[in-house]
Amino acid sequence: MEGISYKELFPDRSLADFVKCFWWAENLTDITHEFTILPDGCFGMVVQFHNNKLQTIFLKGIWTKPFEIIIPPKSSFYAVRFKPLAVESVLFFSISEIVDQNVELDKSFWGINKLPFKDINEFSDLLTTKMSAAFTANKKFDERKQRLFNLLFETNGAISVDEIANILFWSSRQLNRYFKKVFGLSLKSYCNILKVYSSYPQIAKGEFYPQQDYYDQAHFIKNVRQYTGANPKKLYQNKKDRFIQLSIIDEK
User: Fold this and answer.
1) What rounded mean pLDDT belongs to the chain?
2) Based on the domain organization, do 151 and 58 belong to the same domain?
3) What global pTM score does this model have?
4) How many domains does the chain have?
């Protein structure tokens, strides 16, 4: 995206179950830039700076629809895309009340207001240390939930709730109760988000026919529009100036 510098870093292997990636975006121009983030099954924490001064820290819940990111002039964002397991293993609180919403965190959260952020590499190193310490201190890690999310990510959400229940010996009712209580949405909705997210690489290439577990093209287009607000062709046409995820995928 013109006028915006963007970079992603993958987490240390020890945090691979809890962090999708760290990312940084900077706007050194005198113009406000906006872009759209599409649902990806993750939630996030964003630290915003203006003229190198800490402005705010906010936590973003799991999104079921597209949302707009606004980067004011001379501002930068340092952020973490958390996988769902991070809720109970690293952060230790529910995000069910912030589906499709943001909540502002105190600037002292994790001592962020005292950390000397200089670049995305230092940011990822500092937060990796914080999260590793939090995970080590947590002595009640639930391996069944780890198997659940491994299954969801391995199948890209193309699996039914009943199939998951049979594999994990965890009733459908319990699974949905867990998702509602901790994340604020049903497991079926989460599976659909992962299915749509897994189609972004093909859309970025201009391929508009379903390659995932969809009945037909009409079903595919309907699901994509439901979670992104646009059909596959429109996503592709606007990947350079609006849908930053598609632009990044296309460059990889």
Assistant:
1) 89
2) no
3) 0.91
4) 2
